From TrEMBL:
Organism for this UniProt entry: Spirosoma radiotolerans
TM segment ranges: 20-37, 43-62, 69-85, 91-110, 122-138, 150-171, 178-195, 233-252, 257-275, 303-322, 401-423, 430-449
Domain O-antigen ligase-related: 266-408
PANTHER family in the record: LIPOPOLYSACCHARIDE BIOSYNTHESIS PROTEIN PA4999-RELATED (PTHR37422:SF13), TEICHURONIC ACID BIOSYNTHESIS PROTEIN TUAE (PTHR37422)
Protein name: O-antigen polymerase
A single GO cellular-component term on record: membrane
Membrane protein topology class: Multi-pass membrane protein
Keyword Metal-binding: no
Length: 488
């Protein structure tokens, strides 16, 4: 009887004696490489190199869904670089694919997932909102039903999928720290890119983007509003303000001076990133988020320190003209005087027109009828011709007063759940981080009245993940009697 240990050796010898299959595969691979390069040029070469990497990532995500979650975060930031890439590279579709693969990997590894987490109230809030947006597909007012798919992803579907992946996977405190580090690293890189645009110059692709229409809102009185690699200056400025808030909170709550100084330096870099964006409304991320932090901390000393820091800055901006010679400071100051701003008054006029249009449409004009999807699929529809200029206005147009009310109730419920969960925590380090995430969530929710950033990458990705973390944060808490358990 043949010893099975000899089988690999025999197979190897057979391949050596009959290597024709290797030659055929090599010829086919060479022909494929030649066809890709000949047809698509450098893009074909990149596809050839990237194919093995893509296969490895595919297998990695299916085996360990957390890999897919981190990949989703990174690609969310890369979306802004599409202005540098040929239209043939569908990064948006790739992002959806990564999320679906992460969800599939979660189901394939179902035995080690904590499915009981889906009983949390947070998840039921998402189910109610998702159900409403699905019913919106049948809205009789919608002029083109397939457009529904383009906006429902940012409205509810992506949030729902992310919630499942984050809630049931064995996410550890180390994973949360890695997520925070990745977020801060991308944000600092974005700030530096914005400085490059402002003080050194724009790349060719960025100049083309401005020439194709971006200049109308990004060059004001001859001054560039830096947009970094984000969709626009509005999102860039709001993101910078949000991460500034995170760093300030971690600075106030830091235990070591090395960490506190690091967070203070990062806060300065990120705040100036917000300043060069020229996004006035983004100031409300700080004006809403910082008081939220003081309230959540329930620490009188923090409240006093916060007041001593914030009151003089706010007073200078509101009651003096100090720094007006600097364009960025002047733009920030005008955010506190909205009634003197012509663009704000135009927004109010547009909202009055929408009020008249929607008074007989409680369920809105249908998902996908405004903003980019509306301009693409139903450009002659009234909803597509009115600038939204706000996430909540877009929801109001597409889902009506009923949908907007449901959405605001969901956001309020998420915030209240976050407060309740955070105040149950025993671990101070975990509590500080969750307070920072919730305060930033509140700031972004407020500023979304002035900019539609809650539905834009990467802000939406960060906000969706953060909302799951702070509403389920008690699963990482340490028992009151132990200072060492559950520290991974």
């Amino acid at each position: 009887m043949m010893d099975l240990t000899d089988r690999p050796l025999l197979i190897t010898e057979q391949w050596r004696e009959s290597p024709w299959l290797i030659y055929v595969l090599g010829i086919l691979a060479a022909l494929l490489a030649g066809w890709l390069v000949g047809t698509y040029g450098m893009l074909g070469g990149a596809m050839l190199v990237g194919l093995p990497v893509a296969i490895a990532l595919l297998l990695g995500v299916l085996i360990e869904p957390k890999i897919g979650l981190f990949l989703y975060v990174h690609v969310s930031f890369l979306i802004g670089f599409t202005r540098f890439l040929p239209p043939a590279i569908p990064l948006g579709t790739a992002l959806d694919g990564i999320l679906v693969l992460s969800l599939l990997g979660t189901f394939l590894n179902g035995k080690r997932m904590d499915w009981k987490q889906l009983k949390q109230p947070f998840f039921w809030l998402l189910i109610v909102w998702l159900s409403y947006t699905i019913l919106e597909y049948f809205n009789p007012e919608a002029p083109y039903r397939p457009a529904w798919f383009y906006n429902v992803r940012s409205f509810s579907l992506s949030w729902f999928f992310i919630a499942i992946v984050v809630m049931v996977n064995p996410i550890s405190r180390k994973d949360i720290r890695l997520f925070l580090i990745a977020w801060l690293a991308w944000s600092v890189f974005a700030a530096l890119w914005g400085f490059k645009q402002q003080y050194i110059g724009l790349a060719g692709a960025e100049i083309r983007w401005l020439a194709e229409g971006g200049a109308r809102t990004h060059i004001l009185w001859g001054q560039l509003r830096s947009f970094s690699f984000y969709s626009d200056a509005g999102q860039f400025g709001s993101e910078m303000a949000g991460v500034t808030l995170i760093c300030l909170i971690l600075f106030f709550e830091g235990k070591s001076w090395i960490l506190r100084i690091t967070y203070l330096v990062l806060a300065f870099i990120l705040f100036w990133g917000f300043a060069v964006s020229g996004t006035r409304g983004a100031l409300f991320v700080l004006l809403a988020g910082f008081p939220a932090y003081l309230f959540l901390s329930r620490n009188p000393l923090n409240i006093i320190r916060g007041f001593l820091v914030a009151a003089p800055i706010l007073g200078i901006l509101m009651f003096t003209s100090i720094g007006d010679s600097n364009y960025q400071v002047y733009r920030i100051r005008t955010a506190l005087r909205p009634t003197e701003d012509a663009s704000f008054l135009v927004r109010l006029e547009n909202q009055q027109k929408l009020k008249n249009f929607l008074k007989d449409r409680p369920f809105g004009a249908g998902i996908g009828t405004s903003s980019g999807a509306g301009n693409r699929f139903s450009p002659n529809h009234f909803a597509a011709q009115i600038p939204t200029d706000s996430w909540y206005v877009q929801l109001w147009i597409e889902t009506g007063v009923v949908g907007l009310t449901l959405y605001l109730m969901m956001l309020t419920g998420i915030i209240l759940l976050g407060i309740y969960k955070i105040w149950q925590l025993n671990d101070r380090t975990l509590s500080t981080l969750m307070i920072a995430l919730l305060a930033e969530f509140i700031g972004i929710a407020v500023v979304s009245y002035t900019n539609p950033i809650l539905g834009q990458f990467p802000t939406s990705t960060i906000i969706f993940i953060n909302s799951v973390l702070f509403t389920t944060c008690t699963r990482w808490d340490t028992p009151k009697t132990s200072h060492y358990a559950n520290r991974n």
